[in-house]
Write a structure and sequence with these properties.
Chloramphenicol Acetyltransferase; 8-stranded mixed β-sheet; globular
Length: 708
Amino acid sequence: MPTSLDKSLASADAHMSDANEPKRSNGAAKEATQAYSKGEKTPLASHTNPKSKPGITFAAQDKLPQLPIPELESTCKKYLSALKPLQTIREHQHTEDAIQEFLRAEGPDLQDRLKKYATGKSSYIEQFWYDSYLNFDNPVVLNLNPFFLLEDDPTPARNNQVTRAASLVVSALSFVRAVRKEELPPDTLRGQPLCMYQYSRLFGTARIPTENGCQIGQDPTAKHIVVLARGQFYWFDVLDDNSDLIMTEKDVALNLQVIVDDAVQTPIYEAAKGAVGVLSTENRKTWSGLRDVLSRDEGSNNSDCLNIVDSALFVLCLDYTEPTTGADLCMNMLCGSSEVEKGVQIGTCTNRWYDKMQIIVCKNGSAGINFEHTGVDGHTVLRFASDVYTDTILRFARSINGQAPSLWASSSPDPSKRDPSSFGDVSTTPHKLEWDMVPELSTALRFAETRLADLINQNEFQTLDFMQYGKNYMTSQGFSPDAFVQMAFQAAYYGLYGRVECVYEPAMTKLYHHGRTEAVRSVTTESVDFVTTFWGENPPAQKIELLKKACEKHTAITRDCAKAQGHDRHLYALFCVWQRSIDEEGTEAASSNGMDSNGYSSPQDGLSERDPSSAIDSPGRTSMLSEEGSVNAPSPTHGQSAHAMPTIFADSGWDKINNTILSTSNCGNPSLRQFGFGPTSGDGFGIGYIIKDGSVSICASSKHRQTK
């Protein structure tokens, strides 16, 4: 069974508080990777690879600097600046007063508590971050999981489903092997190694719902993959105990063809009734209850079936449809299609399992990735997607010229030349998972599918491949490409609606140990000056001048955030520390009164009702304001009347900044056609974009606003 990651987090923290803790700094991290030869750092650049020295992947981990806790006053100042262009003069005055009060009263104490809490931990925000994702109670599909749409396979004869899928699987397994053998060169930024922790959480992991929020389980020795075809589940082993591949690309293709042929034997209307994957799209508490039903009967297969799916390296979804437009392809990768015929759902939305990373391949070979976002960010999955795509090309090159380079420092021995008995206790033949569909499950599945179809139909997607210019032109004109595109989004929104709204963009903080992201709040006084001037009758030179100023400001904020000096994560951690102290005191008061220990607001309840602002990278915050806008004070019977919410969180500015209307993220390179996610608020847009040398690819989603 997959084990919970709690222990590994705890052991990481125990290691952190070791008295012999190595010196952490950017310089020490860089030095740790310099000890490796050029061939080990860049296997691809050295034509004939030396015998690789394992360990380069995580060589810098013990030397990476800790994620710093920013100064309280600096955070408050940045928070105030971020709110200024979004508020009226009166609202802003209220927020200024609230911040002054916070700095005078609870702020310094919360800051001290946070520093105390962070002692000996991998990162001050990590556990709070996990909790905010894992206590999210709504369906993860469209709300949390993002998608990548890969470019088509550039090599001939891989443009059909089975050959493309087999190729992706073999390249993905080579990546798994490189991570497990610690031969994957670390990510770097201008020569500086980045944190690689997330790669150890990419495979064999599953989000598992429980009564009290979800857990992440992992089988670090997983050897099999699960394949979904027409809503039916199959599995087979692909690695030995050494993490070497035990199947050639041809063997994998043969297995996948057998699976596709077998899945067709069950009429689609029949198969739909047992498409258990639909249950993973349910509300998390409902799904938790249904998992209990699945594993309740002792004589049933269901418990074993669940374990096989949970512990698989990843899930491969083979769809029987061929979406043609960009929007349909993006929708297929994010949430699947909804198509009801004769009262039965036969769309690809039934051919998914959202609690794991999924590689999705359409009938014509179009492929994408949908991933569970709790433990990994887009940057990590992008590296995986890029390496898989590159490996595809290089394997094709080696079929032409055996001297062509490899992406990997070492390779699995050729499975076709090995004695099968050397594979150990494995099963390379596909097995079908037979679920026992008790009446309770059949009914739940029907209702889950109805709710999923509603959810899909509430959202729309549009794509834009802007071909006029891209990164090269923007930089030649002296602009940061990311800032330039961000200003285009703000200008477009202002042109449609005549106002500015809260915009969110994540910045990566992987320069630090266990770093994730920081929120860039893209709306600034400078960006507002630009958009209002842009839509006015003003000379072009003036517009360009203000665009430059707005872009410079955006770049400065992004740079700050990459150094973990933004305000967002820090304030969220302070909020969590406050909530935790209330919970603890509430528990004590409740137990002394003989009351239920959940007296005030458990972390589960408090965070599951989050406004899912910026679900792509910022799971949002709990608003504790009542509809009238007054603070919902804890009941005095719990002995907490003295604990009013800190003024900074009770102020309307906190709700304003955490209600993201334009949730944006820049993630991609030429291996991707599109990248995207669902809107993070009812009246918001989700915008994923990729800035290429001569073009910009954009995927926008919303609940039927002016997406097109």
